[in-house]
Write a structure and sequence with these properties.
Blueprint: H1 2-37, E1 43-49, E2 52-58, E3 75-76, H2 81-94, H3 124-128, H4 139-145, H5 156-164, H6 179-193, H7 197-209, E4 227-228, E5 234-235, H8 244-247, E6 250-251, H9 253-264, H10 269-277, E7 282-283, E8 288-289, E9 294-297, E10 302-309, E11 314-320, E12 325-331, H11 336-351
Helix pairs in contact: 1-11, 2-6, 2-7, 2-10, 9-10
Length: 352
């Protein structure tokens, strides 16, 4: 009997390895084909299935370099930062520092003075699921003023002026993507922990997971990709400022796969928090949202995902808790169409 059990275990191990290799080959083939169609866009991809990691990458760090992109190359993860921020919010919930249905009034910095019409109207979960009704930063105007660093002129005063001058929540309870909502969540975290956002994310995510290439204020490191806007022009990485919790973390495929591992493990602090973020907080005919994450379902699967677009890069993170897989796609060009095509092809032909 012992021999039979050992033989069965060996067969299962060989089967799992073979299955994993087959998946990695299929995904690599999809990435390679898309790169051949879009050779100006460098790609780095990390994939995890049952804790087994796979990586593939195509292209160079920039047009003048012969250094190839790899799993350690640094990209802007842009709005994937929101998953990190919402996970921190959920960790604070587990630690009984806040509740998702708490109103934001008592947790905002003292500089914010909410109009009577706004008091006890906006929940923390409303901010995190893009349904607060608050006005947002006008990125169109910011880009006109400074195409390379549009958020550089956004300060804490900019935010307090927007909020303090708001007298009505015109579309409260309806989806409207919000940068200011996640900026406020970052400030709420700072108040409850009495630390800066970059210190909190270091304490709760970066240091515990040993994410050596997940960067906040200082991202002047080697192996950094050069971003390109949708027209192919070189685009600077966005500098760290008050809007950081909404989209200013930099990272790479390797670190994001490590984060996915923790996310999929219900025994970790990050995994326990992720379960909270995956609850349904908003639904309309077009979308379902948790906290900082989109929820997509079909007859067989529930997947959680978040896209990101900076001025010069595009990205997506996606995972299926039930089937224990996840992947990260990083592009050094703002190209949401290519990112969406990669998602669709990988999911429809490999993972569905």
């Amino acid at each position: 009997m012992k021999t039979s059990l050992k033989f069965l275990a060996a067969l299962l191990l060989i089967s799992n390895i073979s299955f994993g290799q087959d998946l990695s080959k299929k995904i690599d083939s999809i990435i390679k084909l898309n790169y051949q169609k879009n050779p100006e866009a460098g790609i780095s991809v990390g994939f995890i299935k049952n804790n087994e990691e796979f990586y593939t990458a195509y292209g160079n760090l920039n047009g003048e370099s012969q250094t190839e992109i790899n799993k350690n190359s640094i990209f802007e993860i842009a709005s994937i930062t929101k998953i990190l921020t919402s996970n921190l919010i959920a960790q604070a919930v587990i630690e009984n520092k806040i509740k998702t249905d708490d109103y934001i009034d008592a947790f905002l910095p003292k500089e914010y003075v909410l109009h009577e019409n706004l008091k006890n109207k906006i929940k923390i979960s409303d901010l995190a699921s893009h349904q607060s009704g608050l006005p947002d930063i006008d990125f169109g105007k910011l880009i006109e003023k400074n195409p390379q660093q549009p958020i550089s002129i956004v300060t804490e005063k900019t935010l307090t002026d927007i909020i303090n001058n708001c007298t009505a929540l015109i579309d409260k309870g309806q989806y409207r993507y919000s940068t200011i909502g996640y900026t406020l969540l970052g400030q709420i975290l700072e108040k409850v922990y009495q630390k800066s956002y970059d210190e909190i994310i270091a304490d709760k995510i970066i240091t515990p997971l040993q994410l050596t290439n997940t960067l906040t204020k200082d991202f002047n490191v080697k192996n950094t990709t050069i971003g390109h806007n949708s027209n192919g022009g070189i685009q600077e990485f966005l500098k760290w400022n008050v809007t950081a919790p909404a989209g200013l973390v930099k990272s790479n495929a390797s670190d994001m796969v490590t984060f996915l591992k923790a996310l999929l493990n219900k025994e970790t602090a990050i995994g326990k928090a992720a379960i909270i973020t995956e609850k349904l907080f908003y639904k309309d005919k077009n979308r379902e949202l948790g906290l900082g994450i989109n929820i997509m379902t079909d007859d067989k699967n529930t997947i959680y995902l978040k896209t990101g677009d900076s001025m010069g890069q595009s990205s997506i993170i996606c995972y299926n808790r039930a089937k224990n897989w996840g992947f990260i796609i990083l592009l050094n060009q703002r190209n949401s169409k290519m990112r969406q095509n990669l998602l669709n092809e990988i999911y429809d032909t490999v993972l569905k």
